[in-house]
Write a structure and sequence with these properties.
The complex is a heterodimer of chains A (102) and B (222).
Chain A: H1 3-24, H2 28-49, H3 60-91
Helix pairs in contact in A: 1-2, 2-3
Chain B: H1 3-28, H2 38-44, H3 53-61, H4 63-83, H5 96-119, H6 127-143, H7 150-153, H8 155-179, H9 190-214
Helix pairs in contact in B: 3-4, 4-8, 4-9, 5-6, 6-9, 8-9
The chains are: A mainly alpha (102), B mainly alpha (222).
């Protein structure tokens, strides 16, 4: 297994773990964290698979996309957090209503 | 957790494992060597005025994309400003340790940001990295109770926030005027123009990230 494939598989693992947490947890902060883990997985897949060049110097195009992607993800997280604060302010809780507890 | 919920959770885990399996199959079926676009980037490097391929892709070949990504940052900030009701850290008093350390760290982080910006034209680094470090410096200062002076919180802050996008668009218009192609910098000026855009952009990215952390429009919370 080459390092590129190893990074990509690790990224897939992070993505699926994040997806699990996104579905299972009802608290919005955990959902936002889970979404960030999923995003990190996607970045790892992109950056890892860019290293499959014959020369060993990674393909710069995916790397440039990941760099801007990380900063945009931080901004989107900030927006999600302030949405969460508004939900908490309006309903008194940042937790989604649990279907089984109704 | 009831029996039904437990069965549902097992079903979910099964589904996720099969998603992982499918994606892993897709990754493993990729050719083990693929040059991607490296050859095209390598061939066009001479037209950019910088020597690091990632910077060349970011600011030259995909300049339009990077410009729009900076607009996305501004959009996120505009949305946060229209949602948030103020900073939750307003009345915090930092401990002596944090206070002293932040005084030590903040100038150091500004220096690191400057280095990252300068290094970007020849090796790893650039506007987004430098901007992120600047933003982190702003977050550290915010956590220790520092606030932007009221006089700077109005239009001077907004000018810094939009300056990155503004300079990018201006350079694009100038290159449209002289070279007839949008964002295709004239060859002899290319390196200097990219450095100019990066310098202003890192300042504006840093300010945007710090302002995003603060939440809420700054002048409303003296």
């Amino acid at each position: 297994m080459t390092p590129a494939v190893f990074y990509a598989l690790t990224g897939l693992g992070l993505f699926v773990l994040g997806l699990h947490a996104l579905i299972v947890h009802a608290h919005l902060l955990r959902k936002i964290l889970a979404f960030n883990v999923m995003g990190s997985g996607v970045f790892l897949v992109l950056a890892g698979l860019a290293g499959r060049t014959p020369s060993g110097i990674p393909d710069p195009v995916p790397h440039a996309m990941v760099i801007t992607g990380i900063v945009v993800a931080v901004a989107a997280t900030a927006l999600a957090l302030s949405l969460m604060l508004r939900v908490a302010g309006a309903t008194g809780s940042a937790r989604l209503p649990d279907e089984t507890e109704r | 957790m009831g029996l039904g919920a437990r069965a549902g959770h097992l079903l979910l885990i099964g589904l996720l494992v099969s998603i992982f399996g499918g994606l892993a199959l897709a990754v493993l079926s990729l050719p083990s060597e693929s040059p991607g676009l490296s050859a095209q980037v390598e061939a066009a490097m001479a037209d950019t005025g910088v020597t690091h391929p990632v910077t060349a892709v970011l600011l030259d070949f995909r300049g339009y994309d990077t410009l729009l990504e900076m607009v996305v940052l501004l959009l996120a900030l505009a949305s946060v400003w229209s949602l948030a009701e103020g900073s939750p850290f307003a009345d915090r008093r930092p401990g002596t340790m944090l206070d002293r350390l932040s005084r030590l760290y903040a100038p150091l982080m500004v220096m690191v940001a400057g280095y990252l910006l300068w290094a970007g034209s020849a090796s790893s680094g650039g506007a987004f990295q430098a901007g992120t470090v600047l933003g982190a410096a702003g977050v550290v200062l915010t956590l220790t109770g520092w606030r932007l002076p009221i006089a700077l919180a109005g239009w001077p802050l907004r000018l810094i926030l939009v300056s990155g996008v503004l300079v990018f668009i201006l350079v694009g218009l100038v290159s449209l005027f002289f070279g007839a192609v949008w964002l295709d910098y004239p060859l002899e000026w290319s390196g200097a123009l990219i450095l100019l855009i990066e310098a202003i952009a890192s300042l504006s990215i840093g300010a945007t990230l710090a302002a995003l952390f603060l939440g809420g429009r700054p002048e409303e919370h003296p």
